[in-house]
Known about the structure:
By secondary structure, this protein is an alpha+beta fold.
Amino acid sequence: MKKIDRFCKAVQIDTSWPKDAHPGDKNAEEPLNRFQEFLLSQYPVFSRIAEHWILSPYGMIFRWPGSSNGGKPVLFAAHYDVVPVEEEKWTAAPYDAERKDAYIYGRGTIDMKSILISLMEAAEDAAAKGFVPQHDVYFAFGGDEERAGLYGAVEMAAWFKERSIHFSWVFDEGTMVMLNQISWIDKPLALLSIEEKGFMSVELSVDQAPGHASRPPTEQAAAILAKALIRVSKKPFPFRLTPTVETFFKKIGALSSGPIGFFLRHAKLFSPLLFMVMKKNPNMASLLHTTLAMTQLEGSKADNVMPSEVKAVFNLRLLDPWTVESAMEYIRKTINDKRVKLRLSNLSTNPVPANPEHAKEKGPGYAVVKDAVEKVFPGVPVLPFLMVATTDSRHYKDISDGIFRFCPQVLTPEELALVHGHDERISVENLNHAFTFYSILIGAL
Ligand SMILES: [Zn+2]
């Protein structure tokens, strides 16, 4: 079977999680188990050379033994679960892996079976040629990344910790080679994320005695909540230039001509002006401060009934050094009203700062990763970047010296919008990019 056919078979296993399923649900877990078996059967040489452990339907680990004793291992993280589809909004069947023009359609084609399968293909290829890495190389594949990785990556991180395994660096999905990312730069940029923002959701609620809408109380819960929302919107989190983003701007500056170039190359010096300009651009602002999105509002179900409680939800992406605790305190102080109760979601996690060396474009793994990117995408500048979404890799922060989050693919903003969207598809060219990238990177280990 050819590489591309194995990829299509991987897409055909529907590893989405049914809405009301819970861990232990045999029907929901069956495709996850099937995917694990699929990997073991389709990559026989690698599976024979590498030890493997299936921890649960949500986690499997491979260890590819290195030739030398000692030295820190490297970890490749990936996930095989996908988000569910709204089938009626697709023009292709979401799990048929149908090929149309130069694309393969299907849920998970971009996020992230193309990456996981390319990694396995590259490993199988290298193992079949007799390649042995210098130090141990681990793969950790999760089956619940789209649901925070609590049963997959969290358990796998604990498994490594119990065995005192500490990684030199971790490589996971992330940002990619982007076209049209910066309006005035007319060339693709390889965004290599070395830092990740934290994730936090807070529910705000105000109680009130239920009753008939014909006799409302003088001060209504909705108005109290609205005041809180306005206070918060008037006091955004302060802007800050992290070393990662400073290097990013410096490199963008070097690619830009005229006053913009000069301004960005000296981003630190001009930071007050930089913040004023970037504040208006949501993409750029997200790199420079903790963002707070007001995502949900809820009151009464009926138009003529007073609600017994009104609720709002904030979703925050925390920029280092903000933590879940300090951000919560900031919100509480800004609202300054005891009638507004705050409740933190248990899925909240702190940011993962960069290894300071990575922000200087060196440090563990930086050179080999950058070199592999440059070989696959000749002439494309590699820029350290800040990941504003979360990845499974955050669960490995305590057992590694640094983390890279990168997808070796070229995506337009339109293609990027297909991730978690309708008609997700990957070009055959991008599939080849990923395979070549992992072959080069593995060959350098
Ligand atoms: Zn993903």
